[in-house]
Amino acid sequence: MTFVFVTILLDMLALGMVIPVLPLIIEDFRGGDTALAAHTIGLFGTVWSAIQFVASPILGSLSDRFGRRPVILLSNLGLGLDYVLMALAPTLGWLFAGRVLSGITSASIPTAFAYVADVTTPDRRARAYGLMGAAFGMGFILGPAIGGLLTIWGPRAPFWVAAAFSLANASYGFFILPESLAPDHRARFSWRRANPLGSLALLRSHHELFGFATLHVLYHLAHHALTATFVLYAAYRYGWGSTEVGWALAGVGACFAVVQAGLVGRIVAKLGERRTLVAGLAFGAAGFAIYGLAPTGAVFLMGIPVMSLWGLYGPAAQGLMTQRVGRNAQGALQGALASLQTATGIFGPALFSETFATAISTRRAWNVPGAPFLLASMLLVVAVVLALRITRAAAARA
Q: pTM for this one?
């Protein structure tokens, strides 16, 4: 568990350092045109997600066949090389190639989640996934702030440091990480199960699992409002630069880490996983509404603690879903979930970046820069309604 925590922490540190600068580099390649940069960021996100859609179930099934260790280590190595490529990218085309490589190799998180399922009992998984979520939060506390500070050495400096973190992670794991999946619990590799559409059959094998998978889609689709538009939105509406964005993301990470490490276990123990899941979605809807309506940066920052409670959803959902498949299918489950997540990324970034570009277009009589966040809030309201139906049906059957 310790190495998995460190793996996620270092991965999130690397990702967090890049977040404040990547959109600005794209904007620079586009001659400073914010709307055109938004279109390009949407394209980058769509292609990255399409590649992940294909790669995630394959890597998840490979981890069920050969174990979690080799998949995690190769993923970390690939990410390190990817950051080097993006640090050296002389053109937008080379930067795009770096994102393609990232799409192929970014499998350490789903496989790490399968690792957690291997080494924990069902009654302790929500708490364990909360600790993994805390690693996400800690990475976002330090990563964006470090990335913002590193820009004093140029916009590419965060990529070099991110590469060092990922390569150090691979080296550390090579000597420390034990295998979690015993040979007698492994499954044969099957292309039928490993292809994206075939992997989704697992999610249809249980009525509630299919319902949770639908919530998973809505959750990750809404999340793209942040990844696709936040940096440009903050610069456009509040005049924030990379340093302010970095500190804001650090605040998000701090609040998220507190929720994941300090509140998830207690709230699940008090409310149960199902009610915790619904509460998390409701807080997410409220947080996005605050983000979209905030007239000033100060009001936006006030929405961060509310939005951080959205983090209650993930550990509760993971705990419920992993209880519905066997040990030899945990990798396939995480691969299928990752495939669904990246499927939302095929059109999610474009959906929200186009919404933002349209909302700020000078050709429009109205200007609503918060439109992407308001759309995300509506998606989570739908998820709350669906989650209530799923939990009530399950309670009736019980």
A: 0.67
